[in-house]
Amino acid sequence: MEAPADAAPALPAAGSSFYTAMRLLPAAQRDAMYAVYAFCRAVDDVADDGGAREVRAAELDRWRADIDALYAGRPVPRTQPLVGPVRQFGLRREDFQAVIDGMAMDAEADIVAPDSATLDLYCDRVASAVGRLSVRIFGLSEEPGIKLAHHLGRALQLTNILRDIDEDAERGRLYLPAEPLAGIGLSHPTPETALAHPRLGEVCARLAEEAQAHYDAAWAIMDREPRRATKAPRIMGAAYHLILVGLRRRGWAAPRARVKPGKLALIGVLLRHAIV
């Protein structure tokens, strides 16, 4: 259902790395990021909790039409908060549509052991496309901004996948890629068989190395760019990297305790990156 015109936009949870990073932005950038976040949250909720698959597909199609209408100068109430950010920061229609397409990948069927190319496409749509919207709001120039969105988006999404493997399995999903799973003898894995496999750690460790490589590439880009324009992605990248480090330290054997950075570690991230 379409939100009422006067409904308050969804905001990130207070205390989250996203909330903290966005609170440090100037007002226009902060409001634009909250509008983008609200859009992403809305379509993600459709993909995860929007009812029967055909209902979810129809609602995502309505979101596609609403984004098209926004760019045609006919915004509906639920896209009205995006009017200003689109105009002020040059946000691109294809990036909003890519986010919807990524959510559709979850809505159409439960993703189980996608091949590496499909997993990369998924990461591009649900994470790097959001990054492409974000870097324009942050004020990065085009080429380094697109490269940063590519690498940091994938770093964050792969970290999410590794952190959430048990929760995703409860939904019938398994985002670990097919090729390394086949390498440990799982040619047609289910979430249950993959998580119970004694060599699961090899697959997770390989994906963690890939995530680390994306973090390294993202930091190399940010180190060459003005700190004011990279403050928010620095905070998010550093906070999420703490999760990856914690996951690798914890290991991959069951039972897998939830990894969450401590308050002191997050304060350290802010002290290093929030002051320009």
UniProtKB/TrEMBL annotation:
This is Presqualene diphosphate synthase HpnD. Signal peptide: none annotated. Keywords: Transferase. Pfam families: SQS_PSY. InterPro entries: Isoprenoid_synthase_dom_sf (IPR008949), SQ_synth_HpnD-like (IPR017828), Squ/phyt_synthse (IPR002060), Squalene/phytoene_synthase_CS (IPR019845), Trans_IPPS_bact-type (IPR044843), Trans_IPPS_HH (IPR033904). Its EC number is 2.5.1.103. GO terms for molecular function: geranylgeranyl diphosphate synthase activity; squalene synthase [NAD(P)H] activity. It comes from the Bacteria. The keyword Phosphoprotein does not apply. It comes from Methylobacterium nonmethylotrophicum.
